[in-house]
């Protein structure tokens, strides 16, 4: 099983990216998790720019997603929404179809007790419009995230580790 993981943060050491690294580390041998690192390289979306051929960095993202069985997106929350860079990436995928019926885990992480629930709601709404298969059992908000990570960004909270394992199980079940 091939999973593509998208962090909504541009910071390499962000909580969202740390959670995706932890998820990749928990994956069994028959599951690969590729963390996409090109969010910052995508051009600003505009329908006039969405032509064939697509810009090379956009085409590379589309091909990565086409070759995947499932997707995990972890977003931080900025101003009660997902970051513009993540929304921009999703805008590049709206009309091209890579996300149609694709099983997706929609996660949010925040230092607030709510865990970025507003950002996650925006993410789920956008994915639903894109006809993605948002898997409820694999989608949740992670509150007080900084208390769940140790100094090197590893997940130190057993409940969060269990929840991330649950993401992998739910996505596997959704691809069967």
Description:
Helices cover 37% and strands 16% of the residues. The protein is of the alpha/beta class and 176 residues long. It has a single domain (2-175), classed as Flavodoxin domain (Rossmann fold, 3-Layer(aba) Sandwich), CATH 3.40.50. Strands 1, 2, 3, 4, 5 and 6 form a six-stranded parallel beta sheet that branches. Helix 1 packs across helix 5. The model has no long low-confidence stretch (mean pLDDT 94).
Task: Quote the beta fraction.
Answer: 15-25%
CATH C-level name: Alpha Beta
CATH architecture: 3-Layer(aba) Sandwich
> Kindly state the mean pLDDT as a whole number?
94
Tell me the name of the CATH homologous superfamily: Flavodoxin domain
Helical amount: 25-40%
Number of structural domains: 1
CATH fold type:
Rossmann fold
Question: Low-confidence stretches at least 5 residues in length (pLDDT < 50)?
Answer: none
Listing every helix as H and every strand as E from the N terminus to the C terminus, the arrangement reads EHEHEHEHEEH
Q: Looking at the chains present, what oligomeric state does this protein adopt?
A: single chain
Reported for the largest beta sheet, the result is: 6 strands, parallel
Number of helices: 5
């Amino acid at each position: 099983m091939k999973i593509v993981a998208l962090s909504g943060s541009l910071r390499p050491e962000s909580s969202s990216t740390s959670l995706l690294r932890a998820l990749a580390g928990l994956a069994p041998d028959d599951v690969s998790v590729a963390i996409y690192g090109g969010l910052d390289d995508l051009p600003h979306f505009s329908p006039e720019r969405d032509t064939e051929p697509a810009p090379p960095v956009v085409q590379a993202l589309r091909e990565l997603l086409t070759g995947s069985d499932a997707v995990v997106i972890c977003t931080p929350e900025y101003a009660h929404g997902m970051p513009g860079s993540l929304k921009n990436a999703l805008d590049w995928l709206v009309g091209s179809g890579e996300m149609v019926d694709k099983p997706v885990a929609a996660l949010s992480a925040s230092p607030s007790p709510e865990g970025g629930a507003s950002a996650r709601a925006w993410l789920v709404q956008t994915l639903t419009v894109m006809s993605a298969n948002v898997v409820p059992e694999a989608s949740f908000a992670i509150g007080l995230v900084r208390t769940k990570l140790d100094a090197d960004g590893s997940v130190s909270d057993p409940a969060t580790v269990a929840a991330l394992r649950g993401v992998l199980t739910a996505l596997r079940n959704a691809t069967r």
